[in-house]
Write a structure and sequence with these properties.
Elements lengths: L3 H24 L20 H30 L8 H7 L6 H13 L1
Amino acid sequence: MNTPATTLGLTIIVAAVVMILVSIPMLMRKIPMNRWYGARFKKSFESEENWRRINAYSAKQLIIWSVLLLIVGVVALFLPPEENSGLFHAIALSPVLVCVPCLLSYRYARKL
């Protein structure tokens, strides 16, 4: 049962779980200001308080959208095995959903 839909679904599920796990320390405000890990907007580096608030908000958004991505991945597991269906291609593009929390976080950071 190694169909393209199964591979796609499992890949999306793994990506969603990784995003959720990476977001948890940010949500808990455990990540100190750095240039490698976290929401790195210009406003984030203005103060420690901004860093923690923006990262917590970004993590919350990433978790919400990753849960949606996780659901899409589970749905993909039940797709018909044809790779040419429109639904298959729509689901294959679903990781673009990660752009939404990034844009929401940027908008939030600009308001601070």
